[in-house]
Protein 1
Amino acid sequence: GNASGGVVTLWPDQQRPERLSGQGRVVAGAYGFWKWQGNVAAPLGPGSASLSVSEAVSESGYRQHSAADTRRMNVRVTYPVTARTRLTLHGLVADSPWLEDPGAVDTTALKRDSTRRLANRNNLSELEGGSLQPRGAGKEVTQAQGGVALRHDLPGGGGLDVTGFLLRRVLKNPIAVTYIEIRRWAYGSRAIVTLPGAIGSVPHVFTAGVDAQWMRDDRQNYTPNRPTLPPPPADDSL
């Protein structure tokens, strides 16, 4: 998030599978929630390959207008180039055909059993021309990204990591005051070196690196009923 206050670091399983293997899981819960997930891993010469696919659906949700559907596919290939150098290719595709947004409720509505589950009226409809028009606040988003990483272990410990990535994101996002469409391209690279060392009798790991990224958005903010762009501001300098 924009103000997460911390970072959670997740590392994939680095162990090479000895043979083709797989696993699956299905979870179901209240409010029309269900999720399935399947994983397959296999040796690839001296390296390995893995594939993971999943879908999570909330058909109704705890609150009105809070249904969701998210699908993911993740592929990873790791191959040792030399005894000390490892190449990794990674790809991810995520698609959410609908993520409904019920919006916020005030304190009074939150305290009442009859209203706490209702969606915010502004997220469902708007008053236009004397009548209520449907809005349907939420998101429809697809994102695909790929990356390549090269890891070289140094003889004295530590290592050198070089990575690069490419990302494409397409978003349709109707909200309470406007309708947003975004088409995004992004790419970047990173190089990091880590070296073991000591300060006095205390062992340390020293890290230095450089990171460069670029992003371009084709963004349109339409009027809430979608057909037109809003009028430009009176002051052209804005």
Protein 2
Amino acid sequence: GYQIKTGEYFPFGYKITPPENRKAFFVGDLTDRGPDSPKVLRIVMSMIKQKIALCVRGNHDDKLYRKLIGKNVKLKHGLETTIEQFDKESTAFIEQVRDFLGKLANHYVVDNGDLVVAHAGLQENMHGRDSGKVNSFCLYGATTGKTDEFGLVERLNWAADYRGETAVVYGHTPQAKAIWQ
């Protein structure tokens, strides 16, 4: 039910009209996952600018941000494709993306504290807090400190033991449908 308009009045984005009483919440990894990361960023940035969406930073967004501020990052796991796509974009757009990604929150506590949204989840004792440890958990979840045969970080299912009062919505690992625990 979203209406999307483009045109000269929206040089880096879109005019998006949501269905009545609807607000989107993006759980990160806006990049490295498909054929047009710049378009995804344009849509999400437009929605946030229009105050019809919220977004938390995912680990892929964080890696792109670090690349855009000049950090040495490995171009793998989709980032190489995103960088190729960015090679066709203007410097002004890339700067806008850099600023956008740099300002994304690592998590939100909303609905009077009844809901937490983070990219990879968040343990109850970390809700509403900000530290390097909280940021790392928001981006990567609980990990073993080891990598698997594909070079991917081994993750623990922190949600299986979660007993908090606050519901936590997270993404991180692509799923065909929502999983409730």
